[in-house]
Amino acid sequence: MPASLAEIIKNLLSPARFRPARYRVEGDSMLPALSHGDQVLAARVRGQFQRGDVVVLQQPFQIPGESGKVWIKRIIGLPQEEIVFDEGAILINGTVLTETYLAGPAGTPIADQVRETARVWITDAGEYFVMGDRRKDSLDSRRFGPVKESLILGRVWLRYWPLGAWGIITGGGQT
Fold it and tell me: Under a CB-based contact definition with an 8 Å cutoff, are residues 128 and 147 in contact?
C-alpha cells in the first residue's frame, strides 16, 4: 500500500533526516542573492553539493577574535576540477562558467565585479572552491584555497527574513 503524501513529507522532514539550522548573513559578499541581515535556513546534504549551491561553512582559517564564525558562500568548483581565472572569465575544466546569479535587477550585470588575474586552482577529492557573488568584497577560495567538505555545515535552502524577501533558494542561488 503506497504511503500518503503527508507520510512521505513527515518522513523526509523527520529530525533524523533533516536538521535545518538558522544563520544570519553578515556583510554584502553575497549580493545580489543575499543581503546583510538576511536570515536563512540551511540543511546538511553531505555529498550532494552542486555547483551554484549557496552554502554555510565554518571559517576555514583562524582570524584573531573571530573564532567559530561561519561564512555564506557559493560553490563554484566541485571536487577534482580545474578552476581557471582568465581575462575575467572562470573556466571549469576548460569550459566557461555561466553565472546567471551575478545579474542584478532585470538581468543587468553587476558593475562591481572584478577581473581576476590569471590563476589556476585544482580541487582534490572532498574539496570545493567557494566564492562570494560580490567578488570585490568577498574573502573566499581565491585567497584561502579550496575548502574541505567537512567545513561545509549545510546548503542554504530558504530565506525567511526579511518577510518581503522570503523564498526558496534554488541550486542557482535565486529565490
Answer: yes
33 pLDDT more than 80: yes
Rounded Cα distance, 89 and 173, in Å: 19
Residues taking part in catalysis = 29, 73
Structural domain tally of the chain?
Answer: 1
What 8-state DSSP symbol labels residue 34? S
**14 lies in a domain?**
no
Q: Does a structural domain hold residue 97?
A: yes
Tell me, yes or no, whether 72 lies in a domain. yes
Residue with cell 584573531: 64
Instruction: Give the CATH number for residue 138.
Output: 2.10.109.10
Contact indicator for 174, 101 with CB cutoff of 8 Å: yes
The residue-averaged pLDDT of 6-18 equals: 52
Give the phi and the psi of residue 33 in degrees, each rounded to 5.
-65, -45
pLDDT tens digits for range 56-84: 998 877 666 666 788 999 999 999 999 99
Angle (nearest 5°) at CA 145 between 148 and 72: 65
The answer to whether position 41 is within a domain reads yes
Q: Distance (Å, rounded) from C-alpha 75 to C-alpha 39?
A: 19
Q: How many CB atoms lie within 10 A of CB 34?
A: 26
Q: Note down the domain range covering 60.
A: 20-168
pTM for the model:
0.80
Q: What is the DSSP letter of 12?
A: H
